[in-house]
């Protein structure tokens, strides 16, 4: 089959994240994995579940130039995916070096397999593994390929040398395998794959070991005939001339893979024009890590302090992010007794004043790209494991319905305020509780952050003061005991002093975004305060800023600061923004 006959998919990079997915995503992924190990589709048109095997096959056979980026661990695999690469190269050199070993088969093949398992767990992207020589003869290749398929490693590259191998950039004229014997390894590998899409790349070392172009072409031809899916033509010249000559003579008989470590100055367009299928950036993550680690160790050693390096190294939170701590938090809320009891009350009693848009439905039901605001809010809440959700409705209440969400009516919405609406849901303010306005949108991480912020009453406040609104738009402005500090090391808690629409700009420390969390203790305080406001005759007209200001006078009301990624819908401009935001 010539590569020009193959019709593959659009060049659309999909978003994916194994480590950062939500519980639901994980459950879905597990379902799909059970039937057909799933990878997010490359394009929306490709709706069937694609396996990693199929994904690598597409990269190799697609007419566009593909790139595989080196990784040598679970963490580096995650970083490669995060950067946007559609496939990974599990390098023999860097996996062994990261274990402190030489690229001479000092790590056993099962030790390499263990590393691959971590990598495959950390990324949904397909991995092409450097299988060296196949770790022995045809029989070793058979077992290797079976085990790779078991672990969802999408392809292997084997090179026509002898076990134990030596890195191609060491020495001259390394001995090559006999062609027939190496073809036996290829056939054995292909006969052992348990997934039809598994890719076997045969690596030709003839140019590296000084056997010339004819020998390289002869070998490539033989390997292709033996069943190799693609040919890796390797070169250690400092320019691309010999691989370009090879490509010209090869005439696309099978996809060509290259490793331009030595001819690094060649622009990728040259490879593109030569019809190369795939470029492997073979070792640059490990090399980058070595430089960074060496410099960091040196500085800390010399200065006997962290002062110089802090700020230049990744934050600890970055580590948490990369390994998916947010998913664990969410899973804990889902699975751990006591953590799963958070409930949410959505306050959506007012109609809003958005002309035609709010004539028949209140603003929480406005369509934002195919879903109502309320639906989007509920999706965010359930993504964080919050399933017990009630919406307090009032104006145009019959339009406010959503499957799985209970409704509580404030039939006196016309003459009462937010605190009264909250009081209508008094029974729900019990145990860990989220209270949120029905007209806000915020990114998932904001809710995660709120749930993680310690405190019995915690309010999410935009320290930037929120976006500009037309004069007269009510804002929940706050005064806190300390201003927001963007300093990563600043972990001191911040408390609410007061909240109101009338705070002068010089005193204002931020805007409450309409999202709050109460612990069981906090919920009890809120219920008590609602009762106190009722006996003071204030409950009917009070807004939530008054409730929180009163609470802050008695108890610690903590602030969870954010600086962006939310909006509330008060105006038609906000609706347009929400449609872009969602
Ligand atoms: C590897 O990354 O281990 C390779 C590529 O085999 S190279 O080091 O260029 O031989
Ligand atoms: Mg190697």
CATH-assigned fold name of the largest domain: Spore Coat Polysaccharide Biosynthesis Protein SpsA, Chain A
Number of structurally distinct domains: 2
User: Which class do the helix and strand fractions yield?
Assistant: alpha/beta
Mind telling me the CATH superfamily name of the largest domain?
Spore Coat Polysaccharide Biosynthesis Protein SpsA, Chain A
User: Which architecture of the largest domain does the CATH hierarchy give at level 2?
Assistant: Alpha-Beta Complex
Number of strands: 21
- On the 0-100 scale, what is the average pLDDT? 87
Rg value = 30 Å
The CATH class of the largest domain is Alpha Beta
Gross morphology is elongated
* Largest sheet report: 9 strands, mixed
**Terminal Cα span:** 44 Å
Short synopsis of the structure:
With 582 residues, this protein is an alpha/beta fold.
What does this structure look like?
The chain folds into two domains: 242 residues, Phosphoenolpyruvate-binding domains (TIM Barrel, Alpha-Beta Barrel); 246 residues, Alpha-Beta Complex (Spore Coat Polysaccharide Biosynthesis Protein SpsA, Chain A). It contains 19 helices and 21 strands. Helix 3 packs across helix 5 and helix 6 runs parallel beside helix 7. Strand 6, helix 9 and strand 7 form a beta-alpha-beta unit. The longest helix is centred in the middle third of the chain and has 20 residues. The protein is an alpha/beta fold and 582 residues long. Strands 9, 12, 13, 14, 16, 17, 18, 19 and 20 form a nine-stranded mixed sheet that branches. Sulfopyruvate (SPV) binds next to helix 4. The site of sulfopyruvate has 10 residues, from helix 4.
